[in-house]
Each structure stands twice: as C-alpha cells, then as structure tokens.
Design brief:
Elements (H helix, E strand, L loop, with lengths): L1 E4 L4 E2 L17 E9 L17 H11 L4 E5 H7 L11 H6 L7 E5 L11 H4 L5 E5 L4 H8 L3 E5 L6 H10 L4 E4 L3 H9 L5 E7 L20 E9 L2 E8 L3
Parallel strand pairs: 3-8, 3-9, 4-5, 4-8, 5-6, 6-7
Antiparallel strand pairs: 1-2, 1-10, 9-11, 10-11
The structure holds NADP nicotinamide-adenine-dinucleotide phosphate.
Length: 245
C-alpha cells in the first residue's frame, strides 16, 4: 500500500495504518466507512459488499474501526452482511485500555420493522450485547421478541432520528462511532450534518447495478475535504473530513 496524498507519501506499513485514522479526544466523532465501485454500487451481484472489496480494503477497515466504541449499522446491512460477534481481542486490549475504551465495541442496529436474523451468533456470542434502536411506532410484539435477543432502545417519533441515536451513545460515554452503512443510513446521518469523517474506498470495478440509495438528495450537499489517499492494486482508500457547518 502506498500513500499518494496526505501523511508521508510512499509505502505505508500495515502496523502504521492505525495512525492514519486518529480519533479526536473529548468529543463525539462519527466515522463513516463504505466501499463503492466506479459506477457507485454498494454491493456486487451477491447483494453483499465483500464481493466489491479487497484484502487491503478489509485491512484498512479493521484498522479504522479497531479503537471504536460503537459500530452503527442499518437493519438491511445486518440482514445481508450477517455481522459476526465482536469479541475482545487480546492483542488489542492494551491500546483499548490506554484509550479508556471497553474491551470491544458494541454493535448498534437501527430498525423500524425489527425483522432481524435473531438466530445469528452476534446476538448470543458478542462481548457486549448488541443494541437495536427502534421507534415508538414499532409493533409491540416485535419489540418484545427483539428484547429476547438484545437490548432494545425505543425512541419517540415515527422514524428513528439518527441524531437521537448518536445522543444515546454519547450519553453512555461512547464517542467513537463508526457508521458502516448501508448507504441509506449513512445518507441519513450525513443529511443531518452529523458525519464527521467519510472513509470511502473506491474499487476499480463496474458492476452495472447495486446502487441502493433512495431519496431525492440534498439541495445543499454535505461537503468534505480530502485528508489522505492510499492506493493498493487500483483501489483508492480516501479519508475525507466534513467541512460543513
Ligand atoms: N459497500 C459498502 O461498504 C456497504 C456497507 C454496508 C452495507 N452495504 C450493502 O448495502 C445494502 C444495504 O444498505 P441499505 O442502504 O439498503 O440499508 P441500511 O442503511 O443498512 O438499512 C436500512 C434499514 O435500516 C433501518 N433504518 C434506517 N434508518 C432508519 C430510521 N431512521 N428509522 C427506522 N429504521 C431505519 C430500516 O430497517 P427496517 O426495514 O428493519 O425497518 C431500513 O430499511 C446491502 O446490500 C449491503 O450489503 C454495503
């Protein structure tokens, strides 16, 4: 891997990658992470993002989320990507403890329908029980069922307000939040001006399909400055920082 822009241009060692994804101290920081193809697809023909990713993409993804408090995803992403349990890794404990973090991040899912794959190991084997955030319009029996598998937070309103979700996390002292999509949830957060960093990988692929964002778009797009670009085998790993008010 080599840094093309930002940092010290040239080869970057795997063990130095984490330093390129710092967390600010004493404030909430929302880091969005996504991979997209040249034609803007969020997934390949198998509906999942792994088929448009690469080994280097996964390495950077893991480095950038390694010292997170919480991983935030939309329900479709859980239904498709089937997140595995997040467990404390012995080799990460010293760095997490030094940063004042719990031994592992918690996965937080947003869902209105609460039709999630409850049999997945993530709900039984995670270091910290996943949290599902829903709205007060969720069906009571669905809430009851969800409570058998995870912590459920019910927020007021017809839809879940992403800003209120972030407040729930910061109220618990979790300031380092990685939003791993999907594109619709990431868009909702950015549309409210709540995304601080967008780490967008560009895969040198065209899949002719797989664009999943709904909605008509913002009249005033959320704006970002480029902090660095890393290249590996034609993939570009771009770190952008929000410059919107
Ligand atoms: N390329 C990448 O890096 C990447 C990353 C992640 C995912 N993906 C791919 O993207 C696709 C999924 O993305 P997506 O954008 O369709 O879905 P998504 O953002 O993961 O999830 C959307 C779902 O989340 C829930 N949700 C989101 N905002 C909500 C709100 N304000 N209130 C209540 N519920 C809310 C709803 O769930 P309910 O339907 O349960 O109510 C909604 O249907 C999959 O194919 C996945 O593999 C790609």
């Amino acid at each position: 891997m080599q840094i093309l822009m930002g940092g010290n241009p040239g080869e970057v060692a795997r063990e130095d990658l984490g330093e390129l994804y710092p967390w600010p101290v004493g404030q909430r920081w929302v880091r969005g992470m996504m991979v997209t193809t040249l034609d803007g697809a969020a997934h390949g023909s198998d509906n999942a993002s792994g088929s448009i990713s690469s080994t280097a993409d996964k390495v950077i993804f893991n480095e950038a989320r390694r010292l997170a408090d919480a991983i935030l995803i939309g329900a479709n992403t859980m239904r498709v990507e089937r997140y595995r349990p997040l467990k404390a890794k012995p080799e990460q404990q010293a760095a997490r403890a030094a940063a004042g973090l719990r031994p592992a991040p918690v996965v937080v899912m947003i869902s209105g329908r609460l039709d999630l794959p409850w049999d997945e190991p993530i709900f039984r084997e995670s270091e910290f029980v996943p949290i599902v955030v829903t709205s007060e319009t969720a069906a009571p029996d669905a809430v009851e069922r969800a409570r058998e598998h995870c912590e459920v937070v019910v927020l007021p309103g017809h839809k879940v307000d992403p800003g209120a979700v972030l407040d729930v996390l910061t109220d618990r002292g979790w300031n380092r939040i990685v939003c791993e999509g999907g594109p619709n949830l990431l868009g909702e957060i950015a549309a409210q001006g709540l995304l601080d960093e967008a780490d967008i990988s560009i895969a040198p692929l065209i899949v002719a399909g797989g664009q999943v964002v709904t909605g008509s778009g913002l009249d005033n797009p959320d704006r970002y400055r480029l902090a660095h670009v890393i290249e590996h085998e034609g993939f570009l790993f771009n770190r952008y920082i929000s410059i919107s008010d």
